[in-house]
C-alpha cells in the first residue's frame, strides 16, 4: 500500500517540491553562516553607553514587560545579557528576573557557559538596575534592585552565525511552513488537472464518454484536456453511429428472418391448399380414364374438373402476386382518382350484390387523389368489397365512404371505409390478414375464395406506403384503407 501511494504523481510532486523548498532554505542559511563578512563590534566605551541607554529604557517599563526591549537590544548590539534579582540572589545562588525575554541568559548554566567562553578580547561586568514601579516615591525607579550582567567583545567577528543559531527554531518553522504551503499549491496546480485527465481517460477506456475535463487553463495541460474532450466527443459520435448502423443491420437481419419465416409458412400453406384440389382433380380424371362409375358421366364431371382447374388457377395467380409483393421490387406509382376506382369496383361486383339483394351506398369528399398503382390498389379494394358482399346478410346495405385525413405524423392520407352489418369473433380479428386464414371455412369454400384475399390486400396497400385494418364497431364490421394522398397539382 505505501508503495502504491508513493507511486502517485500528486504525492511525488508534493514531496519533491517540499524537499526542494527545505533544501533551498537550508542552503540560504548555510550560505549566510559561512559567507557573510565579519562585523566590527563596538569598543568598550561604546558598549557601556549602549548598556546605560538600555538601563534608562528599562526604568520606564515594568519588569514583566521588559522582554521585547531586551531582545531588540541583544539582536542589535550582539551583547549578551543576564538580569538578576539582586535582593533575592546569594553568593552561590542567582535568582533571575521575571522577564519575558527570549534571548537573554536565564539559567546559571547558560551564564557559566558564556563566562567559560570569554577570551582575552571580551569583557564582562554588571550594573545596578531598577525597573519602573508605580508605587515608588522616586519617579522612574522601582523599590527592587536588579543586577544587569553583560558580556561583549571588542574584536571583529561574524555576527551572522550567532543570529542564525539563536533564530534557528523560528527559521526552521518558517521554512517548513512555507515549503508545505508552496508544495500544496504547486501540487494542486499541476497534479489536480492531471488527475482529472486520468479520470476522464479511464472513463473513456470503459466506453463512458459522458465525463469531460472542461479545463480553462491556457497552458499545455489545458491544451491536453481540451484535446481529450474533443477526442471523447468524436469517439462518442462514432460509437453512436456504429450503434445505429448495428441496430439497422440487426433490424434488417430480423426483418429478413421474419420474411423467410413468413415465406416458409406461406408456401407450406400454399402447398397444403393446392394439394386438395390437385387430389380431387386427379381422382376425377383417373375415374374418367378408367371408366369408373360415376365418372363415366362426362357431361357432369368435366365441368366439375374445369371448375377445380379454375380454382387452382386463381390460387396460383394469388400466390404469384403475393410472391411479387414479397420480393421487394419497386412498383410504379401514379396519380389515381379513388372515387373513380371505387365506382369501377362496385360496378364489377354489381351482379354479386344483386344476387344477394345487397344495396350499396357510396359517399365521398373532394379532391381524393392518391399516389399509387391503380391496378394493385384495385385488387386490394376489390378484396375488401367482395369480402363485405360475401359476409353480409341478404337484403343489407354496404356503405363505402372516402375522405381526406391527416395522419399522426402530419401526412395527408386518402381514407376509404367499407362498412357492413355483421360481427367478427374477437379471437379471429388478429388473424384476418394471415395467409389462408378463414373465419368461416365452409362459406369460403363455397365462394371459391383462396384464403389469400385479405392477406394480399394488406400486402398491396402497405407496399404503397398505406395501411389497412378491420374491426367491429357496434353492430357493424368496418374495413379501413389508408393511402398516401397526392397533394400536388396536375
Shape: rod-shaped
The spatial strand order of the largest sheet comes to 7-9-10-12-11
Q: Average pLDDT, to the nearest integer?
A: 76
Distance between the termini: 83 Å
SSE succession: HHEHHEHEEEHHHEHHEEHEEHHEE
What percentage of residues falls in helices of 4 or more residues? Answer: 40-55%
Q: State the low-pLDDT regions, or none.
A: 441-448
User: What is the SS-derived class?
Assistant: alpha+beta
Largest sheet: 5 strands, mixed
Describe the structure.
This protein is α+β, with helices and mostly antiparallel strands and 490 residues long. The chain has helices at residues 2-6, 9-35, 44-58, 67-77, 108-116, 159-205, 220-290, 298-326, 338-348, 350-355, 374-390, 441-447, 453-463; strands spanning 39-40, 80-85, 122-129, 146-153, 156-157, 334-337, 359-364, 369-372, 397-406, 412-421, 467-473, 476-484. Strands 7-9-10-12-11 form a five-stranded mixed sheet, covered by helices on one side. It has a three-stranded antiparallel sheet with strand order 2-4-3, sandwiched between helices. Strands 1-5 form a two-stranded antiparallel sheet. Strand 9 (397-406) and strand 10 (412-421) form a beta hairpin. Helix 3 (44-58) packs antiparallel against helix 4 (67-77), helix 8 packs parallel to helix 13 and helix 11 packs antiparallel against helix 13 (453-463). The longest helix has 71 residues, at 220-290. The radius of gyration is 57 Å and the shape is rod-shaped. It starts with a helix and ends in a 6-residue tail after the last strand. Residues 441-448 have low confidence and may be disordered.
Amino acid at each position: 500500500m505505501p508503495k502504491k501511494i508513493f507511486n502517485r504523481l500528486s504525492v511525488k510532486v508534493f514531496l519533491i517540491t517540499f524537499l526542494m523548498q527545505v533544501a533551498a532554505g537550508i542552503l540560504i542559511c548555510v550560505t549566510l553562516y559561512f559567507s557573510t563578512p565579519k562585523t566590527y563590534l563596538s569598543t568598550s566605551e561604546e558598549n557601556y553607553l549602549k548598556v546605560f541607554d538600555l538601563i534608562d529604557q528599562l526604568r520606564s517599563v515594568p519588569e514583566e514587560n521588559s522582554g521585547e526591549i531586551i531582545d531588540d537590544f541583544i539582536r542589535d548590539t550582539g551583547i549578551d545579557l543576564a538580569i538578576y534579582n539582586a535582593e533575592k540572589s546569594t553568593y552561590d545562588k542567582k535568582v533571575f528576573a521575571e522577564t519575558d525575554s527570549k534571548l537573554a541568559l536565564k539559567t546559571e548554566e547558560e551564564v557559566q557557559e558564556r563566562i567559560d567562553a570569554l577570551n582575552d578580547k571580551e569583557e564582562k561586568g554588571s550594573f545596578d538596575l531598577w525597573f519602573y514601579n508605580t508605587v515608588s516615591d522616586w519617579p522612574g525607579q522601582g523599590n527592587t534592585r536588579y543586577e544587569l550582567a553583560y558580556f561583549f567583545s571588542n574584536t571583529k567577528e561574524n555576527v551572522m552565525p550567532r543570529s542564525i543559531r539563536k533564530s534557528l527554531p523560528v527559521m526552521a518553522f518558517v521554512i517548513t511552513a512555507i515549503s508545505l504551503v508552496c508544495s500544496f499549491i504547486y501540487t494542486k496546480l499541476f497534479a489536480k488537472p492531471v488527475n482529472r485527465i486520468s479520470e476522464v481517460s479511464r472513463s473513456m477506456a470503459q466506453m463512458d464518454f459522458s465525463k469531460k475535463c472542461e479545463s480553462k487553463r491556457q497552458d499545455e495541460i489545458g491544451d491536453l484536456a481540451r484535446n481529450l474532450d474533443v477526442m471523447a466527443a468524436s469517439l462518442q459520435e462514432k460509437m453512436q453511429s456504429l450503434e445505429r448502423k448495428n441496430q439497422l443491420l440487426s433490424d434488417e437481419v430480423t426483418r429478413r428472418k421474419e420474411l423467410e419465416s413468413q415465406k416458409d409458412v406461406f408456401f407450406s400453406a400454399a402447398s397444403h391448399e393446392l394439394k386438395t384440389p390437385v387430389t380431387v382433380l386427379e381422382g376425377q380424371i383417373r375415374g374418367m380414364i378408367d371408366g369408373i362409375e360415376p365418372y363415366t358421366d362426362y357431361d357432369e364431371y368435366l365441368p366439375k374438373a374445369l371448375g377445380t382447374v379454375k380454382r387452382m388457377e386463381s390460387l396460383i395467380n394469388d400466390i404469384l402476386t403475393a410472391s411479387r409483393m414479397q420480393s421487394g421490387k419497386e412498383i410504379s406509382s401514379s396519380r389515381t382518382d379513388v372515387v373513380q376506382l371505387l365506382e369501377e369496383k362496385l360496378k364489377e361486383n354489381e351482379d354479386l350484390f344483386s344476387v344477394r339483394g345487397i344495396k350499396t351506398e357510396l359517399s365521398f369528399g373532394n379532391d381524393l387523389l392518391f399516389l399509387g398503382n391503380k391496378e394493385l390498389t384495385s385488387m386490394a379494394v376489390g378484396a375488401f368489397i367482395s369480402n363485405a358482399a360475401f359476409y353480409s346478410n341478404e337484403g343489407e346495405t354496404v356503405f363505402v365512404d372516402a375522405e381526406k385525413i391527416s395522419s399522426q405524423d402530419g401526412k395527408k392520407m386518402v381514407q376509404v371505409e367499407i362498412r357492413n352489418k355483421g360481427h367478427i369473433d374477437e379471437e379471429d380479428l388478429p388473424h384476418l390478414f394471415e395467409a389462408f386464414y378463414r373465419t368461416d371455412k365452409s362459406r369460403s369454400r363455397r365462394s371459391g375464395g383462396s384464403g389469400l384475399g385479405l392477406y394480399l390486400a394488406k400486402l398491396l396497400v402497405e407496399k404503397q406506403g398505406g395501411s389497412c385494418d378491420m374491426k367491429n364497431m357496434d353492430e357493424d364490421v368496418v374495413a379501413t384503407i389508408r393511402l398516401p394522398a397526392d397533394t400536388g397539382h396536375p
